[in-house]
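hi!! sorry for the late reply, been swamped w classes. u asked for the two structures so here they r. pasted raw, havent cleaned anything up. first the sequence of the first protein and right below it the tokens
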Amino acid sequence: MLTNLNAQPVDKIMALMAQYREDPREGKIDLGVGVYKNAQGVTPVMRAVKAAEKVLWEIEGTKSYTGLAGDPAFGQALSGLVLGDSVASDRLACAAQPGGTGAIHQAVELIKMASPDATIWLSNPTWPNHPSIIKHLGMKMADYRYFDNDSRAVDFDGMMADLAGAKAGDVVLLHGCCHNPTGANLTLPQWKEVAALLEKTGATPMIDIAYQGFGDGLEEDAAGTRLIASSLPEVLIAASCSKNFGIYRERTGLLMAISDNAGQTGTTQQNLTHLNRQNFSFPPDHGARLVTMILEDEGLRADWMDELESVRKGMLGLREQLAGELQKQAGSDRFGFVAEHRGMFSRLGATPEQVERLRVEHGIYMVGDSRLNIAGLNAETVPVLAEAIVAVGI
């Protein structure tokens, strides 16, 4: 049987990681993998997570299963962080998932059950796992314009023109903040226009929010998601705790489904629970429990927010330093977009050949579409990167 299997495409980011590891050069710089790293190149365990783990070690009395949808307290805590009071609780169904990727996968399965002929609209570009999961589950998809490679900003007119073609029953996938891979975000007035267009077409929004707190702040980063949630009858939201809580390996995520009315919520919740049962039965709990403890404890929450804000400001500082260094070395303001983008990523607009030259000639690793991870830099490597960018003619 297994001899009938075909080889699968190699994940480009995983392949890039392998190339980086095998590179013997001491001055090499990893800007490819989408993981936050501090100035020492380490992905630290956050203080509040460490403190919560110590408490949990003392008080946890069982490792038995939680509910099929996870601990309800986790759903309540994380949905509160994302949605605030924008949606009545009786319209909201939640199910814990193994990471943000698990939440996306489960959301597409839910769409397939509810609207099997739906087309799922994706920004061009988007996170590569989005189309991969949709294709794997046999759903139709279409692109909408999002990023202007010349200005390195959102092509909002193109986006709106394309999304006018979405229809009732279709799903439009939006990045809640810190767009991956471009770093270019919608403004709040633009979010309002998107909401009005979706209401007109009848298409259902699905929001992937994986970087809340990495852009302009916890509340600011959630503003677009909350506006959509409060404006439209049905919304799907996939949230990840990997980045803002730094618990990548704990695989902690949440799928939220907002129904048109409270009478539908029970059925929606049953379907979320059913999908969990079919795919993995009970979701992982350790990370979810830590997040719940942090969000419910005033002291832990305050310390977590303080550290997260330091992380956010550190990335903004690196953006400003890189934009300034590029301006100095290139003698041009064409890289000002780096300081305007938000989150871990920016897309330089370089050609694959230029990206390859950065790797071969300068030991600088980034994804082939020229997405770079700002968090892979520090104050000493910023001038090195700027010099290399100018040298390869970007």
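now the second protein. again sequence first, tokens right under
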Amino acid sequence: MAEKKNAKTVTVEQTGSPIRRPADQRATLIGLGLNRMGRRRTLTDTPQVRGMIAKVAHLVRVVEDKA
């Protein structure tokens, strides 16, 4: 999968535990590359990624990059 050089990115941090959450929410966290509280991932800002973030918005937060 080729990425553009200047593709926009979004950084998400896991703030909530997947314990006692539905399996699809756990799978969404894994799909985002998050599996521990406090872990951060920088992802390409696409509609698919934004949809995944919206699905687990109560378990993650979007981190503002200081650039």
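hope this helps!! also noticed smth abt the second:
Helices lie at 23-31, 47-55.
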